[in-house]
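Before the break, one more example. Copy the sequence into your notebook; we will annotate it together after we see the structure.
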Amino acid sequence: MTTTAPAGPVTDADKAAVATVPGRVVAAWAAQDATAFAGVFTPDGTMILPGFYRKGTADIEGFMSFAFQGPYKDTRVTGTPIDLRFLTPDTAVVITEGGVIPAGETELPADRKIRATWVVTKHDGEWKLAAYQNSPRDAA
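Here is what the structure looks like once it is written out:
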């Protein structure tokens, strides 16, 4: 994983906190907890998935609540950071590789792997997800 920093003060604690944001999403997904999932986002955060655009924690929570009862029921998600860089001392970009592991499966199928961009910002003293977007890892 490559890490770069701006000319401003970025602490080791901030670097560590930003790196945990994908893990917070993974944990909320594992618990199938739409409220915890949405809570990782800023109040006006955005989530873009293939075919879907959601904005704000209420919209994200509603979408994930439905998804955890339907297409994402009993699935797991994985996301391993492959790049992390700070744009300012309060804003970072994390790139991950991972995807949704289907219910009953133990491994992520190669054709379901994605890369995702996470824009993380410090909001009320806590690192939150301001924007998330993913796309398939490999060309179709």
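The longest helix spans residues 57-69. Strands lie at 2-4, 41-49, 52-55, 76-88, 91-101, 114-123, 126-136. Try to locate both features in your own notes.
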